[in-house]
């Protein structure tokens, strides 16, 4: 076997043989063929044998050109812009201009005043929101034990608040948020609010907000007052 | 001036004021109630007189009689481009208006086709036109199509009958095209 | 009719159409720009003619000359109570109205603060209010702030002078808020 191999011309041995098998060449992915390397190898082998084979050189050159062409073709297909989608043409008439009419509207300064009341309440809530917005959870970069400690602390606080809520409603009932935080310092009220959000997320309580009064109602226990699949705190629309 | 004449002038002014403040078409019953009369006929006759007076006065405003015994006051279309910018309510810009024209012209038409012809931004136009009540979706056999609404017909003083409306629109577009530089 | 007469009639109609659709007082510069004339005097003279014509016509509408060379078209007050109930379109829906009331009360105020208090949807409200000409942005030192416009003052019947307006608003708002604890 080895003898047969050695008797065959050098250019029929791998890897240079690729250049001399046209059928195989056409099935190759041209990017996997390093033409420069193969040709250098071919030349050094020829030099080593001390005999210039013009026929073999011609085939090698032809094959290299073919691979080059295949590469170019692929590149060109890739770079070709996608054919523009055929826009269906249809006559589009010029814009219709709406006839102008004088329009008196019914809104008065009294309406403006009526809503201002609500908005100023929202302004106070926004102040609370900003306190809420400050990072409550530790940063991701913090060590896990610290986070665990925080979660444990949070859970114990949640348990305490939930027990307090159950106590207030004696099993099941609705409490207003303002009643819950009556007399508490602001930071405590904010804390209670956050804990309520966690309790609602765990499905232990339901929260909803009256759009007009902006009062938040907390439902504790199974009241069976209409199904409410998700506990949610409605924001003002 | 006789009492009857004075009364008539007062009633004409009442109808004029009503159309002015409403800023929308008023039907004969609304107009009747402004006059505190039970007679439709009386209201109609007075509206005829007022409409004619507006024609004779030949000013910037006109009163149109719409289908179903409704009347509206508006600025004559020739003045629209010159004073549009003084209106303090967001008007439809040219893009949505063009989409509206196309829907009106080709209705009933699928929204798919509207997007094909007017491009992706027409999604927003159709939504806006629906929000404004100028266009509505309707089921037509198995497909859902867009149509202009009665409000649209009102707004442009067009009849609500689809065939007549389309004929009128073609005329309007034809006129508009005459003024347009041809592509 | 001579060309000059025809031109004059056209200009009178333009002014009429402008006052009609604006529904608010227009100042002499706005009226001038409708006529595309540089001459204040010409605009003033035409407004005189139009105002007199309205007096002569003796219909439901009148044109008034306000101070600061502003003119407004309105329904004569004697007709207002009879037709008020026909006006049923609000200027703004509840959300944008709330945002407007807040800006009016706290102006000049940064839009950042408005969003903080009124929420993310207030971006759209502020855009709408600006489009409607009720609110405008102004540079105040290094920051950009929101303020109500003259149109806002006109619409709600308040004086245009900012200090007086704020006092007016505070007085009105103060009365409305008497029971509220002040922030």
Across the major sheet of chain A, the strand order is 1-3-2
Shape of chain A: elongated
Number of strands of chain A: 3
- Determine the structural class of chain A based on helices, strands and strand pairing: mainly alpha
* Proportion of residues in helical segments of chain A: 40-55%
Poorly predicted ranges of chain A (pLDDT <50, ≥5 residues)? 1-5, 132-144, 226-237
CATH architecture of the largest domain in chain B: Orthogonal Bundle
Overall tally of structural domains of chain B: 2
Can you tell me about this structure?
The complex is a heterotrimer, with one copy of chain A (237 residues) and two copies of chain B (183 residues). Chain A is elongated, with a radius of gyration of 40 Å. Chain A has helices at residues 2-7, 22-27, 35-49, 54-79, 109-133, 144-169, 177-180, 186-201, and strands at 173-176, 205-209, 216-220. Chain A contains eight helices and three strands; from the N terminus they run H-H-H-H-H-H-E-H-H-E-E. In chain A, 52% of the residues lie in helices and 6% in strands. Chain A has a three-stranded antiparallel beta sheet with strand order 1-3-2. Chain A has 237 residues and is mostly helical. By secondary structure, chain B is of the alpha+beta class. Chain B is 57% helix and 15% strand. Chain B contains nine helices and six strands. Chain B has a three-stranded antiparallel beta sheet with strand order 1-3-2. A three-stranded antiparallel beta sheet of chain B has the order 4-6-5. In chain B, a hairpin with a 2-residue loop joins strand 5 (135-140) and strand 6. Chain B is elongated. Classes of the chains: A mainly alpha (237), B alpha+beta (183). Chain B binds chain C through residues 9, 12-14, 16-18, 20-24, 26, 30, 34, 57-61, 75-76, 79, 82-83, 86-90, and chain C through 9, 12-14, 16-18, 20-24, 26, 30, 34, 57-61, 75-76, 79-80, 82-84, 86-87, 89, 128, 131-134, 151.
């Amino acid at each position: 076997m080895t003898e047969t191999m050695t008797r065959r011309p050098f250019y029929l041995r791998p890897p240079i043989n690729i250049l001399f098998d046209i059928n195989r060449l056409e099935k190759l992915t041209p990017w996997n063929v390093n033409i420069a390397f193969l040709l250098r190898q071919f030349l050094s082998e020829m030099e080593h044998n001390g005999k210039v084979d013009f026929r073999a050189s011609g085939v090698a050159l032809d094959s290299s050109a073919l691979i080059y062409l295949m590469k170019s073709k692929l590149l060109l297909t890739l770079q070709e812009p996608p054919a523009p989608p055929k826009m269906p043409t249809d006559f589009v008439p010029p814009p219709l201009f709406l006839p102008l009419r004088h329009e008196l509207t019914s809104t008065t300064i009294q309406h403006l005043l009526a809503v201002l009341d609500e908005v100023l309440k929202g302004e106070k809530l926004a102040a609370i929101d900003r306190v809420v917005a400050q990072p409550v959870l530790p940063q991701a970069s913090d060590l896990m034990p610290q986070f665990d400690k925080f979660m444990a602390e949070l859970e114990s606080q949640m348990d305490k608040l939930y027990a307090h809520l159950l106590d207030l409603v004696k099993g099941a009932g609705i409490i207003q948020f303002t009643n819950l935080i009556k007399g508490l310092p602001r930071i405590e009220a904010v804390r209670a609010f956050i804990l309520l959000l966690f309790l609602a997320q765990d499905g232990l309580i339901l929260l909803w907000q009256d759009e007009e009064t902006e009062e938040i109602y907390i439902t504790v226990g199974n009241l069976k007052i209409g199904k409410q699949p998700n506990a949610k705190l409605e924001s003002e629309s | 001036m006789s009492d009857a004449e004075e009364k008539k002038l007062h009633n004409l002014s009442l109808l004029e004021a009503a159309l002015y403040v409403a800023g929308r078409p008023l039907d004969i019953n609304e107009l009747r109630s402004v006059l505190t009369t039970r007679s439709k006929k009386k209201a109609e006759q007075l509206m005829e007189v007022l409409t004619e007076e507006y024609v004779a006065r030949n000013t910037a405003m006109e009163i149109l009689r719409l289908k179903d015994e409704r009347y509206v006051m508006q600025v004559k279309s020739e003045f629209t481009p010159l004073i549009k910018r003084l209106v303090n309510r967001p008007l439809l810009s040219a893009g949505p208006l063009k989409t509206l024209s196309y829907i009106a012209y080709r209705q009933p038409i699928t929204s798919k086709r509207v997007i094909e012809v007017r491009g992706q931004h027409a999604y927003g136009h159709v939504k806006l036109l629906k929000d404004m009540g100028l266009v509505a979706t309707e089921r037509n056999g198995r497909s859902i199509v867009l149509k202009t609404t009665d409000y649209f017909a009102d707004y442009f003083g067009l009849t609500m009958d689809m065939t007549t409306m389309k004929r009128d629109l073609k005329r309007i577009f034809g006129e508009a095209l005459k003024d347009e530089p041809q592509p």
